[in-house]
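Action item from last meeting closed. Structure (817 res):
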């Protein structure tokens, strides 16, 4: 297969942050702009967050002052708006902390003349960025990489003429800091805000678009500032609290002279130069104060540099590439396109893409999602947040946090199917830690056993409802959804020790909470005590005959889908582990009486327990379709419900935010409608110009660097698209390997090697003229399985080498028998 397509390239430097090219080693993120006279590299360290653990936790007991009973009375009386208001006034918490940028490497080059032959690229095969150009007949080249094994960001600067490399370099940060220059090193020490960051008045103009959605704690729905909105300027100190951090740049030059200037280092007349950057922070765990119990941030940064003290550029580069390729090279993908469009610069390819003329752009989008996961989520690092690990703002959109009602989970949809199971480790560790803070919330706020989490979390593993409108912030279902990733990890790896030691205890804790959160509805079914369908409202007619809008009700469809899934998975896990308990008996009895799916008057799958009207029929969320994807409660045999799902998707529409298009790709794939899934991919591959541009538009798509555009940038759309493309080619949710279940007509020829399936199988698929031609299945020797293709089924068993191979002719002959 042709791997040359796995490359982003451009003929000009990036003019905006969303044009820069991302690098990452799990912890350290870099955004390369590729400037000619001035280079900027934006930096992030995934441990840099404002605030401290526990300072914004607020344990409001929902049973105090009779509010819980009053909310139930209001819901039974269909006074939903009043219940909504009561919850907002009594149960909400405090502002969430923000993920913070580290700063920028700024380089000013000393070369003058007319520039020609400019190229800027990111090679996904090696995770290396290159910039090259010519001035006055002299060629200049830069290489950039981030190394996971060596824990550094590295640059190598070359010119074709000896003694011609001259530049000044400095390290900047927007935070409180001090900089010291020591010969060939720049040492920066900084301090993050010790409290949650609020929104200063002078920055409110930045939040005009959809600002009531993005910042409900500040703005009314009409865009006006809420009377009770609080603004505290960034930088206000709070008793010395807050994260400390350090960053060190070391310059190695061959030839020439290195000298220190005021806050920067000067290199003159070198043959070439190497730049290495290391970081450290006082982060010492989700439950430890970074100011009082923190690590030595400067010592950590120096220690990382010592690791490479005796290593050459070639050794560092080789280590980084081999480490990266051990993950990336597991999966290859081609759509067999012979169109020459893939020779164009990436931004031009996106502009010209019409869904037909450049199928390899879809391959690039798919592999880019895998690349971003490898760069952003490695063993021992933090999970990828709303922006992965790449953020330039002190006040990032939605705090660049962990949004647990879709976005964080969507980030990790492709890790198992796309052969990156190890990259799930940071998410699994976060779930472990959330179960600790979430146990306190369950006990002190809900008087329940087990653990829970709500809509937002941070590096401090916030689990309580944060401030704002409960349609966003009150959602104690996150524990149940997160546990689905634990079960999926087991299904794909069949690691029974992981199931016993990690997954089962966490799933059991989440199930205990959600079991206690259920109440018996007057019609006899079990429903959640009160809930929302995330971020959506419904309309109803009150007792006065007036139209009202609210979000809180008994048992929204998504609540029940998550609970049903968790209970069933826990029972399956208990059977595998030969466990039994009274809790399991109780859950097994309740599953049958959880509120069933309902079909509404429009033929749609109902979103709420009542067939309410929707004030936003085109809403971006499709939460009530959880049972189709990422869940598996509504399958191909559920014809009536599947038709209702299709009606729901058609009513929601195709045009939405970038991440919502990612979810729609996955849903259409599960419906086995490859043409509509392809339509959604094509819609996502629409260029969104940077905000402020004359061509800026509000609809979802991608930026020129292929980052998902909500807009603004959210990385979940990238991961959702990658997961959806995998689902189009292979599904395995019913213990059957379904080959090419949603192959679009336009993908008439292709090959994919290395997809993963539940049961620990790895699958290679080839097709031509829209038809399967061959399949290879790998796994544990003698493991049995079943394949489905085009309504035919075939049972198989892997041979002594753990392999099974067949052609379409073999399949058709065997499946007829």
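Sequence:
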């Amino acid at each position: 297969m042709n791997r040359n397509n796995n490359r982003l390239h451009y003929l000009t430097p990036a003019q905006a942050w969303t044009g820069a090219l991302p690098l990452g080693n799990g912890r350290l993120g870099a955004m390369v702009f590729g400037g000619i006279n001035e280079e900027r590299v934006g930096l992030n360290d995934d441990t840099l967050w404002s605030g401290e653990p526990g300072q914004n936790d607020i344990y409001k007991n929902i049973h105090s002052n009779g509010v819980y009973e009053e909310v139930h009375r209001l819901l039974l009386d269909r006074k939903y708006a009043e219940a909504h208001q009561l919850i907002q006034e009594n149960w909400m918490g405090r502002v969430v902390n923000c993920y913070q940028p580290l700063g920028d490497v700024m380089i000013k080059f000393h070369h003058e003349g007319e520039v020609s032959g400019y190229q800027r690229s990111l090679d996904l095969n090696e995770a290396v960025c290159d910039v090259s150009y010519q001035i006055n007949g002299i060629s200049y080249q830069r290489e950039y990489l981030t190394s996971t094994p060596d824990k550094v960001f590295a640059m190598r600067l070359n010119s074709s003429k000896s003694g011609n490399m001259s530049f000044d370099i400095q390290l900047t940060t927007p935070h409180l800091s001090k900089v010291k220059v020591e010969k060939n090193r720049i040492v920066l020490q900084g301090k993050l805000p010790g409290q949650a960051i609020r929104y200063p008045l002078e920055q409110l103009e930045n939040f005009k678009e959809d600002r009531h959605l993005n910042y409900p704690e500040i703005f009314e729905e009409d865009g006006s500032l809420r009377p009770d909105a609080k603004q505290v300027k960034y930088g206000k100190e709070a008793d010395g609290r807050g994260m400390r951090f350090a960053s060190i740049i070391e310059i190695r030059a061959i030839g020439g002279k290195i000298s220190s200037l005021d806050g920067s280092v000067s290199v003159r007349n070198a043959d070439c130069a190497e730049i290495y950057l290391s970081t450290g922070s006082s982060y010492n765990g989700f439950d430890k104060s970074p100011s009082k119990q923190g690590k030595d941030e400067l010592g950590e940064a120096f220690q990382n540099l010592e690791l490479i003290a005796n290593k050459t550029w070639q050794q560092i580069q080789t280590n980084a590439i081999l480490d990266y390729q051990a993950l990336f090279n597991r999966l290859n993908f081609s759509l067999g396109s012979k169109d020459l469009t893939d020779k164009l610069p990436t931004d031009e390819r996106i502009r010209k893409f019409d869904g037909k003329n450049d199928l390899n752009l879809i391959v690039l989008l798919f592999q880019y999602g895998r690349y971003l996961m490898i760069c952003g989520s490695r063993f021992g690092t933090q999970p990828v947040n709303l922006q992965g690990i790449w953020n330039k703002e002190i006040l990032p959109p939605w705090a660049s946090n962990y949004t647990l009602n879709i976005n964080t989970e969507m980030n990790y949809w492709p890790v198992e199917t796309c052969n990156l199971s190890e990259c799930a480790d940071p998410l699994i560790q976060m779930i472990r830690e959330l179960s600790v803070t979430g146990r306190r919330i369950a006990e002190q706020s809900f008087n329940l056993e087990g653990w829970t989490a709500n809509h937002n979390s941070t590096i401090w593993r916030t689990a309580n409802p944060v401030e704002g409108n409960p349609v966003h912030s009150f959602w104690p279902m996150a524990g149940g959804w997160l546990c689905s990733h634990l079960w999926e990890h087991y299904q794909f790896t069949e690691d029974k020790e992981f199931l016993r030691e990690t997954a089962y205890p966490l799933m059991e804790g989440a199930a205990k909470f959600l079991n206690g959160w259920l109440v018996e509805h007057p019609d006899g079914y079990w429903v959640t005590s009160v809930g929302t369908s995330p971020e959506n409202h419904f309309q109803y007619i009150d007792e006065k005959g007036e139209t009202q809008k609210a979000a809180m009700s008994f048992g929204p469809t998504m609540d029940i889908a998550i609970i049903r899934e968790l209970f069933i998975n826990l029972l399956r896990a208990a059977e595998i582990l030969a466990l039994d308990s009274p809790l399991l008996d109780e859950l097994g009895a309740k599953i049958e009486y959880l509120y069933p799916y309902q079909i509404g008057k429009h033929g749609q799958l109902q979103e709420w327990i009542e067939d309410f009207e929707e004030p936003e029929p085109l809403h971006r969320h499709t939460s009530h379709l959880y049972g189709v994807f990422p869940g598996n409660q509504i399958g191909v045999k559920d014809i009536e419900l599947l038709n209702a799902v299709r009606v729901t998707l058609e009513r929601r529409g195709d045009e939405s935010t970038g991440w919502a298009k990612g979810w729609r790709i996955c849903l259409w794939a599960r419906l086995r409608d490859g043409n509509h899934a392809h339509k959604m991919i094509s819609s996502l591959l629409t260029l969104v110009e940077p905000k402020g541009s004359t061509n800026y538009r509000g609809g979802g798509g991608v930026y020129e660097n292929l980052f998902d555009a909500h807009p603004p940038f959210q990385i979940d759309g990238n991961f959702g698209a990658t997961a959806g493309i995998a689902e189009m080619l292979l599904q395995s949710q019913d213990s059957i390997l379904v080959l090419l279940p949603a192959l679009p007509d336009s993908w008439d020829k292709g090959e994919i090697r290395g997809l993963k399936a539940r049961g620990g199988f790895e699958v290679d698929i080839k097709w031509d003229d829209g038809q399967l031609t061959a399949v290879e299945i790998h796994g544990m020797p003698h493991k049995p399985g079943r394949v489905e293709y085009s309504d035919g089924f075939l049972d198989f068993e892997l041979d002594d080498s753990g392999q099974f191979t067949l052609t379409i002719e073999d399949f058709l002959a065997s499946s007829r028998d």
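Note appended to the action item: The chain has a mean pLDDT of 92.
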